[in-house]
Design brief:
The protein is α+β, with helices and mostly antiparallel strands. Helices cover about 25% and strands about 15% of the residues. The chain contains 14 helices and 18 strands. The longest helix has 20 residues, at about 140-160. The protein is globular. The chain binds CU-O-CU linkage (C2O). CU-O-CU linkage binds near residues 180, 206 and 349. It holds the Pfam family Tyrosinase. Its cofactor is Cu(2+). Keywords: Copper, Disulfide bond, Metal-binding, Oxidoreductase, Thioether bond. InterPro entries: Di-copper_centre_dom_sf (IPR008922), Polyphenol_oxidase (IPR016213), Polyphenol_oxidase_C (IPR022740), Polyphenol_oxidase_cen (IPR022739), Tyrosinase/Hemocyanin (IPR050316), Tyrosinase_Cu-bd (IPR002227).
């Protein structure tokens, strides 16, 4: 009870039983498939205050629940030696609720809840003797394409022949909506969404999602070796929508895309606004190098922040999620549609066949990152991470429970990526010619204390004190970034930038980015922090014995909907997961 500081009030006392997912039992009659109890009479807890940090620095609402008079069997919790373990549990499908339209919070006209099943199987990975090798989408041959198209055609056909078949295309698309648009509550926490983005579940969740999607496609064409193609957007040869997705008569085509960005338009992974193709390409390589290596200071900087049961969703995105990942979504989605459907919004992203190839490359980035020889540890050993679990339907329509731990060695999941060049691996921007301290302090630059918190409705220049004169192993922290989660948000950060060439990212001064795909959560506002490692940047601009730097923050999209609480530079924390 040491952390019980909240004063909480039970507003509605309809009991909300904490059931373990295996105790869900439903008749699998079709009439149940799309009916879900509505969510009005649920326990609502209203708290004014202050969830305290546990010594591990995690929010702990379990202790709050202890204060509610044993509603959840608090005594058991208290005496359970594992009561500290709080991995995110799989959603209770029978309690799935509505997904909402983002800006208005009105009900969407789709129900993205999954079919129910009366059994849940703990999933065991089969023993794969041969790996499915995922090819780059721009290089596949005719024979492969024919297979892939046939598999997608059959998946789409299921939507018509049996809309309740969990392997159907819309059912697969809806998985993303259900795990991302507030359809599921955390088990036992009716006020908190399950959200697989903006946290350390981002990579493992999508790895499982693609795994089953790929296995289902293989099943539908009776080819267990079938492997999804990946959209190789990190390589100049793949920096446009893969052409195989752009043939109007193909089942891979989707009309809900930005018509301006059809091939051969080059993707702008940094949202740099560059107009020249060559500049876009070098910017893209710079973005990749930055989000994979240069700006990454810790494991969760790359993976996403810890997220455990009882904690508010969206504790913070990793560098890859908020960088290239977000940009590719936004590049494909159609800005003429209300919510950038399909790819530009979580609820609809899975309706575009290209989504899965985009995420195959995101997954490939994780696999590459794990092998990088940088000083950041690659594994997270926290049981709250390893034991977090999800539910999926497998290729035989069985509802299975899967764990994060089983994604760590992806080859055990039976697949691999075809080897292609990784041109950004050594893409260090060139050092600044004049290796001197910033020559002139911009006239509009002020000290952080005088400017923050601020709304990012214009370019901001701020003087930030270093942790020590000349200290080179430092991290730039932007704190309490509050965004309207229904908007696409993007801003870039530069250090000691005097050139004001905002559309060139392949420069030593580029420190990193923040970007967010719009989505709905119960609280429309999201708060997060980003850390940008400066060590290498300093080597390239030479901070000599400076005791401050000038940070430039450039809003790229909806800056008026972002407030930043504070900015500071701290010594690089010790390297641990
Ligand atoms: Cu789950 Cu790229 O979104």
């Amino acid at each position: 009870m040491a952390y019980l500081q909240s004063s909480c009030m039970v507003l509605t006392t309809t009991p909300h039983h904490h059931t373990s997912p295996s105790s869900q039992s439903f008749s699998a009659k079709p009439s149940h498939f799309f009916t879900h109890p509505n969510r009005t009479h649920r326990l609502q807890v209203s708290c004014n205050s202050s969830e305290k940090q546990t010594p591990q620095g995690k929010l702990d609402r379990r202790n709050m629940l202890l204060g509610l008079g044993g509603l959840y069997g608090a005594s058991n919790l208290a005496s359970n030696p594992h009561s500290n373990a709080a991995p995110i549990e799989p959603p209770e499908f029978n309690k799935c609720g509505e997904a909402h339209e983002l800006a208005t919070n009105d009900l969407l006209d789709i129900n993205c809840c999954p079919p129910l099943s009366d059994t849940i199987i703990d999933y065991k990975l089969p023993n794969f003797t041969k790996l499915r090798v995922r090819p780059p989408a721009h290089k596949v041959d005719k024979e492969y394409l024919a297979k892939f198209e046939e598999a997608i055609r059959r998946m789409k056909a299921l939507d018509k022949s049996d809309p309740t078949d969990p392997r159907g295309f819309m059912q697969q698309a809806n998985i993303h909506c259900a795990y991302c648009n507030g359809a599921h509550d955390q088990v036992g926490y009716p006020n908190l969404d399950i959200q697989v983005h903006e946290c350390w579940l981002f990579f493992p969740f999508h790895r499982w999602y693609l795994y089953f999607y790929e296995r289902i496609l293989g099943e539908l064409i009776d080819d267990p070796t079938f492997a999804l193609p990946f959209w190789n957007w990190d390589n100049p040869k793949g920096m446009q929508m893969p052409k195989i997705f752009d043939t109007e008569s193909s089942p891979l085509y989707n009309k809900n895309r930005n018509p301006k960005n059809r091939p051969p338009t080059i993707i702008d992974l940094g949202s740099s606004g560059a107009s020249e193709d060559l500049q876009k390409v070098v910017n893209n390589l710079a973005v990749m190098y930055s989000e994979m290596i240069r700006s990454v200071n810790s494991t969760v900087d790359f993976m996403g922040k810890p997220y455990i049961a009882g904690q508010s969703p969206r504790p913070g995105m990793g560098s890859s999620e908020r960088g290239s990942h977000t940009q590719a979504h936004v590049f494909v989605g159609n800005p003429k549609n209300k919510y950038y459907e399909d790819m530009g919004n979580f609820y609809s992203a899975g309706r575009d066949p290209l989504f899965y190839s985009h995420h195959a490359n995101v997954d490939r980035m994780w696999s590459i990152w794990e092998r990088l020889k940088t000083d950041v540890p690659k594994d997270i050993n926290d049981p709250d991470y390893l034991n977090a679990s999800f539910l999926f339907y497998d290729e035989k329509k069985r509802l299975v429970r899967v764990k994060v731990a089983d994604t760590l060695d992806y080859k055990k999941m039976g697949y691999e990526y075809e080897k292609v060049d990784i041109p950004w691996l050594n893409y260090k921007p060139s050092k600044k010619a004049a290796k001197t301290k910033i020559r002139q302090i911009p006239s509009d630059a002020k000290k952080a204390e005088e400017m923050f918190p601020l709304t990012l409705n214009k370019i901001v220049r701020v003087l930030v004190n270093k942790s020590a004169k000349g200290q080179a192993d430092e991290v730039l922290v932007l704190e309490d970034i509050e965004t309207d989660t229904t908007k696409f948000i993007k801003f870039d950060v530069f250090v000691n930038d005097e050139d004001d060439k905002a559309d060139e990212l392949d420069r030593a001064e580029y420190a990193g980015t923040f970007a967010q795909v719009s989505h709905k959560t119960k609280d429309k506002k999201g708060k997060s922090t980003i850390n940008l490692k400066l060590t290498e940047l300093y080597e390239d601009i030479d901070i000599a014995d400076d005791d401050f730097v000038v940070v430039t923050i450039i809003p790229r999209s909806n800056g008026g909907d972002v407030t930043i609480g504070g900015i500071k530079i701290i010594p690089s924390p010790p390297k641990s997961a």
